[in-house]
Amino acid sequence: MAFVIAVAQRKGGAGKSTVAVTLATALAALGENVTLLDTDPQKTLARWHALRQGAAAANSLAFEEPSGWRVPQTVEKLRKRPGFVVIDTPPHADTDSRLGIRAADLVLLPLQPSPADLWAMEATLELTAEERKPVALLFNRQPSSGKLRDEIAAEISKRGLPLLPTPLGNRTAYASAFALGLGVVEHAPRGSAAEEARAFAHAIRREAS
Ligand SMILES: Nc1ncnc2c1ncn2[C@@H]1O[C@H](COP(=O)(O)OP(=O)(O)OP(=O)(O)O)[C@@H](O)[C@H]1O
Ligand SMILES: [Mg+2]
Questions:
Q1: What domains, with CATH codes, occur in the chain?
Q2: Do the beta carbons of residue 127 and residue 101 sit within 8 Å?
């Protein structure tokens, strides 16, 4: 049975698509069977996937772009296989992101360590609660140090929300790999971003077991 992760956060530009690609490619590099689903009408990942064709460094990764009622249908089909399904969801559109959340075993909520992202996650937390799904928060674009990050982490902990211990830093490597249809573990496997991505993938594997 595949473990299904929906990457969701109402705030636009929080890093959903980057996190989905980073996770899917890092799990694939660990030898996992991975399908990446783009359910966002912006089709960011469909464009990423088109660039991926023919890229020598690309590991095997399945890709689908269902929308509407096809989202649960596609996930149920993929769930029968071992491995992971990673769903990228759109910002704002409650109906579309709800479909991804409903189909998931875990909702992964990326946020930059900032008050704006913290406030914006409320709507997504409400959706996950309504759908009775477990949630894990992930700091994305984390600065290398900072009082603000510690304050936001303290606030999250005070609220009893689980924060993955494997943040992704604010690094151009993520966008550079993305522009080539790759993940950081494929494009720059010895870099700091790839190291973060592998730690993140291991943390998700632990969540799945
Ligand atoms: N860890 C990171 N380090 C540096 N830049 C990042 C990081 N994560 C995301 N970005 C950049 O932030 C921008 C928004 O990222 P992304 O498209 O992944 O967000 P999103 O939540 O999917 O956006 P949308 O809500 O529009 O779907 C992109 O330019 C991306 O390259
Ligand atoms: Mg996106």
A1: 3-208 (3.40.50.300)
A2: yes
